[in-house]
Design goal:
The complex is a heterotrimer of chains A (105), B (533) and C (307). Chain A is mostly helical and 105 residues long. Helix content of chain A is 49%, strand content 10%. The interface between B and C is large, with 94 and 87 residues.
């Protein structure tokens, strides 16, 4: 298991750069993870997306469908990509501290 | 530069046995003729120090390095124990006969190498020959299973039985897509792809070594939660509700998916990944089945809403467990047949491999959705306007359905009917090439493995797609690759993203049912929206 | 002595072949692993299977023996797969294999001639009808067999020595095997040209062999050496990977083309049920067979997730 340090926090991540222990997520961790995605600051829109993902994951133990994410946050997919260039699954989910999506997705 | 590898050096520790230089890769056709692949992302030094990654430019399993020589020896001995079990009828009745036949008759003529997309696209790197990993196992077999003693070195060649051999061999078993194109060309009938699968199986069933994507986050998750995606039955129902709503809005046809209908004719099992990643696919299925008046249902039983069975790729025990859950769900509902959705390995797992696992009342008829869809399209129950699909379309043949099951024409007959600009790739049908994501690779991308999947294993498919649309160079003209398999779609999605193929060539991809729905006159025009995401 | 040696070699050949066939034929019925095209299928032309039909289990299957023959005959006689997928190898492999087929025919002609001779048929260049035909057939086939086998094996050996990939994969035995065939061809040709150009001596030998006249004088010199070598080769082949001349049948009929469907109450199902009772010894954490659990036990239990 690899780890990386951002500022004064160290985060354990898997081979794909996703959090190894999603339960240790907090706002600072989100900022650190965002830095690995080329996102230097998190705007209100970023947080809206991240918090939605976080809530959904806490409730259901899995990432939401992308279309559902768009519909319920009101962001078109293009905006999601603008916010997180590597997309909803690889980018936004990672920053929200979700583990890497599994199965044929 | 590539160099010739010997079999013996496989067991000798070195920093990296084989490397594919970017210059070795075969150039792509236009508009990628001048394109140069980015250099490999080098594995981090700390990774190299802690894990076994001495095979090639990438690493999949990340096996921790043993801490002592003693531990190395123990692991190597365990491998030998597993190897011996692999050749007993009690432990491996499932594949013993084909395995023994393939072990004992290879003439090492290398004919199969030229059939392998991985070997060819790597620029002919010896390490990726279908014969290379097989030859190592053969030599170990004659020495340690047939107990040929020293004489086996003369008769069958030598390779050292060291931890390095084992670590590299496990890793190398995951450089084969199990597409079995090599076996098709063998003049004798040897199946070197089976040998890759059996190495994986030995390691999983004896040493407990398998990629986490297949085992821990794959079959184990499916057996405990119900799906490899992590969706339990509540989440999957909630998501399907959402899909119904979304589809109804988009198509103007009111839709309601069927759940747990007892006595339905058809139990449809999707690859659950479709629901999360390509929701229009299960949506389109529901719409077509409803419009055709088919008595159908989905099941919310454990594992029965996910047709995935990764056991097919690496483990017979896990395979049997999941196949059993699929059959039990069908039995519980009392359906007439199970229909496999657009998932290649689900087709093969459920219809072919499970055929000699399921007995008695669990042996419920199982059918391909391609066949049912053809029947529906031919029945005239759907009003179809092919001109809605008037853009160039090509078809990717999922190996599991086509070469390995002989379902070749139904999907083509549908396309000829509904896609006026349908054209074949070359070669196609049972001679097709794998997408490069086969045997679960499409869901693996840790470290730099995704790069290997793009540069090496997926390159042949991308080449074929470009060739199929060579007469349509304008990127403003959308072109559609119909890939009726979740795993293949994942790989093709990644390939298109890697090459920027949507922008540069106008390439899009998706399944078969989406094209059918797009042609339905009862559906609002523009179901397929090439401008969106 | 030479007679006994030939009989002995023949017995070894038969015993090894039978043992190997028995070993392969009695292995458990395995999971389906067919590969299309499957030659006996109706749509073998493009590789189609019975799965292409709606409700395939309700439909009567039409399998075609002729379809299998259409693949098997060109494959066996002409090595079609090598021709199609590895042409440069075919130029060497085909003469070699065809030479071996002719060799078998040559032996058959010698034995046939020997038996005919025992019944008083005169064989030779000046003999009437059948004797004349046998004389020439044996002569043409014999020289063609020795020549093609030798040249083919030489071609294969040169290729194996000069191609770095093949060399990397070759064991000592692979060179040895080819050398054996080359040596046999050389000895055979020398024997024939120097002392038995009409194969009279060989035919006299096969006559005594077929009629079990062990006290008849056996040939010595080159011809004797030729007989001894050929017998030894015959005994050796089935013990090596060259046994593919008969095990190939299993590779096609028991694997590539084995699409037999398991139906409820069938003998096939019976075999599967009994095999599902085999005890499992795999020791990974998610199985822990320990020779206590059967496959049914393993398949019906839920593995414990890792702590």
């Amino acid at each position: 298991m690899a780890s990386f340090t951002h500022g004064n926090i160290t985060i354990e991540v898997d081979e794909d750069g996703f959090m190894a222990q999603p339960e240790k997520w907090n706002n600072e961790v989100a900022l650190a993870l965002a830095s690995t995605e080329g996102v230097t600051a998190l705007s209100e829109d970023h947080w809206k997306l991240v918090n939605y993902l976080r809530d959904y994951y806490t409730k259901f133990g899995v990432a939401p469908m992308i279309r559902k994410l768009c519909k319920e946050t009101g962001f078109p997919l293009k905006t999601v990509y603008d916010l997180f260039p590597s997309g909803p699954a690889k980018g936004a989910c990672k920053v929200a501290g979700l583990p890497k999506p599994t199965g044929c997705v | 530069m590539k160099r010739h590898l010997t079999i013996e050096e496989f067991s000798r520790p070195s920093e990296q046995l084989a490397r594919v230089d970017i210059e070795d890769l075969i150039p792509l056709p236009p508009p990628y003729d001048g394109y140069k692949e980015p250099e490999w992302t080098r594995l981090k030094d700390e990774k190299r120090a802690s894990c076994e990654c001495s095979l090639d430019d990438t690493v999949l399993l990340s096996l921790p390095k043993p801490k002592s020589l003693r531990e190395e020896r123990e692991l190597a001995d365990k491998f030998v124990a597993g190897l011996q079990k692999l050749f007993t009828k009690e432990n491996n009745w499932t594949f013993l006969q084909p395995l023994v036949l393939s072990m004992e008759h290879c003439a090492k003529c290398q004919t199969c190498s030229d059939a392998c997309h991985v070997f060819l696209e790597s620029g002919g790197n010896d390490v990726y020959r279908p014969t290379y990993r097989a030859e190592i196992l053969r030599r170990l077999y004659y020495r340690h299973v047939r107990e040929g003693g020293l004489l086996s070195g003369l008769t069958h060649g030598r390779v050292g039985m060291t931890w390095t051999t084992v670590a590299r061999l496990i890793e190398l078993a995951y450089r084969c897509n199990l597409c079995r194109r090599c076996a098709q060309t063998c003049p004798i009938g040897v199946d070197n792809a089976l040998i890759a699968r059996e190495i994986r199986k030995l390691c999983s069933q004896e040493l407990g070594i398998a990629p986490k994507e297949l085992h821990e986050k794959g079959t184990m998750l499916q057996l405990s939660v119900g799906s490899t995606t992590g969706m339990n039955s509540l989440v999957v129902k909630d998501n399907m509700d959402f899909i119904d709503e979304d589809m109804s809005e988009k198509t103007g046809v009111k839709l309601q998916s069927k759940w747990d209908v007892e006595g339905a004719d058809v139990l449809l099992i999707h690859n659950a990944g479709e629901i999360l990643a390509w929701p229009e696919n299960p949506g389109a299925f529901a719409l077509i089945l409803e419009a055709a008046g088919i008595s159908w249902t989905l099941s919310s039983e454990l594992a029965a809403y996910d047709g995935v069975n990764y056991g097919l790729f690496y483990d017979d025990a896990q395979f049997a467990r999941i196949a059993l859950l699929h059959a039990q769900a069908a039995k519980k509902l009392g359906v007439k047949k199970i229909v496999a959705g657009e998932c290649g390995h689900e087709h093969k797992a459920l219809m072919v491999i499970a055929d000699r696992v399921l007995t008695g009342d669990l042996n419920i008829p199982r059918e391909s959705s391609f066949v049912l869809l053809e029947e529906i399209v031919n029945s005239g129950k759907l009003k179809l306007d092919p001109s809605r699909n008037n853009f160039p379309v090509t078809l990717h043949d999922p190996c599991n359905v086509v070469r390995l099951m002989g379902i070749v024409e139904p999907q083509r007959r549908i396309l000829r009917k509904i896609a006026p600009q349908f054209r074949e790739m070359e070669p196609h049908g049972v001679d097709n090439y794998c997408c490069g994501g086969g045997s679960g690779f499409a869901i693996m991308s840790g470290n730099n493995f995704a790069e290997w999947r793009m540069k090496v294993s997926g390159r042949r498919k991308f080449r074929q797609i470009l060739e199929a649309f060579r007469d349509e160079p304008d990127p403003a003209q959308p072109k559609y690759v119909c890939a009726p398999c979740s795993n293949c779609k994942g790989q093709i999605r990644d390939l298109f993203a890697h090459y920027g193929a949507k922008e540069k060539v106008g390439l899009h991809y998706g399944g078969l049912v989406e094209l059918i729905v797009n042609a339905m006159t009862d559906v609002k025009p523009g179901f397929m929206d090439f401008d969106a995401g | 002595m030479l007679y006994r040696f030939v009989y002995g070699a023949l017995i070894v050949f038969l015993v090894v072949v039978i043992e190997r066939v028995a070993r392969l034929a009695t292995l458990p019925v395995h999971l389906r692993w067919e590969l299309y095209p499957v030659a006996h299928e109706e749509n073998a032309r493009y590789g189609g299977s019975f799965f292409e039909h709606l409700d395939w289990w309700k439909r009567k299957r039409n399998t075609s023996m002729l379809g299998e023959l259409k693949v098997m005959v060109p494959e066996i006689v002409l090595l079609k797969a090598v021709h199609e997928h590895n042409r440069s190898l075919w130029y060497r492999s085909f003469p070699f294999h065809f030479g071996l087929y002719l060799m078998a025919l040559f032996v058959a002609l010698l034995v046939g001639g020997g038996v005919a001779q025992a019944f008083g048929v005169e064989i030779g260049a000046s003999a009437p009808s059948i004797g004349l035909a046998l004389h020439w057939a044996t002569k043409v086939v014999g020289f063609a067999a020795l020549g093609l086998m030798g040249l083919g094996a030489l071609g294969l050996l040169v290729r194996r020595l000069t191609d770095p990939t093949l060399r990397a994969f070759s064991a000592t035995a692979d060179y040895f095997n080819l050398l054996v065939f080359i040596a046999l061809a050389v000895v055979g040709l020398v024997a024939s040209i120097t002392s038995d150009v009409d194969f009279v001596e060989l035919r006299r030998f096969t006559q005594s062999l077929a009629t079990v006249h062990l006290d008849a004088p056996a040939p010595g010199g080159w011809v004797g050496a030729e007989i001894a070598m050929a017998s030894a080769v015959l005994a050796y082949i089935p013990a090596t990977h060259m046994s593919h001349f008969f095990t190939k049948w299993f590779m096609y009929h028991s694997v590539r083309w084995d699409d037999r469907v398991n139906t409820v109450g069938s003998p096939l199902e019976g075999r599967i049920v009994s095999q599902l009772g085999y005890k499992v010894d795999w020791s990974a954490a998610h199985i822990q067979g320990g020779n206590r659990k059967s496959w049914v036990d393993v398949a019906t239990e839920k593995p414990e997730p890792k702590p």
